[in-house]
Amino acid sequence: MHSYISESDMENWHDFEVASRREITALLRSIGEKNQLIRMLVKGESDVCVTSILEVDADGGNVILDCSISPDQNRRILGAKRLSFETTLDKIRIMFSGEHIESTTFEGSPAFKMPLPASLVRLQRREFYRIATPVTNPVRVLIPQPAELGGGSKPFPLSDISCGGIAILDNSLELGDTIGKVYSDCRIELPEVATITTGLQIRNSLDLTLLNNKTNRRLGCQFVDMPRSSLTAVQRYITKLERERNARIAGLE
To answer: What superfamily would CATH give domain 7-126?
Structure first.
């Protein structure tokens, strides 16, 4: 399914296979509701049709797709043993394949019908791929404090992590929200993986008011001057969290 992305390019992407029928249905419905165009590859790059999802019939286990304006292309699509699809949803590339496509009608117009794909791949640039960190045993970042505040380092819990940075929860509003401010020599302990040291630059700030009227601040921070070995450790930790998340989802179904 990755045939139209070069191997060197793949290193900059993070792929995640979705096999949960419920999640596949939800993703395909979102693509349809947002009217996202989908590239349908009939025989590789040489025969491409642009289509869209008209309806996702979860009970019947089918996806209804728009036809091509070309009758010849429609015949080739119906005669194809396997089709590949690619689209985007919220900066994420979605890829899946389909078989046994047949003609149908939708709201009085010609359309295609095919079974729901058994799996699909979400492909996202690594720096955009964020995963929530555990709530029960939170990951913490130790940020050095200035001398006037007594020096030393203070721990702050993480909200999520990506290969480009982290989101910090600053419940006591101690770090400030100056966009562009850099904190050097911050230590992040990634359980069962490694402890890394990196600079952090504040890129965005969001103040949230909780139900008890307390304010909670979420700071989006970008890694600065991070060694390659530390980035590898972050990637390993993200993969670990993903495996645990998949195991939980599988246990619920």
So the answer is: Electron Transport, Fmn-binding Protein; Chain A (2.30.110.10)
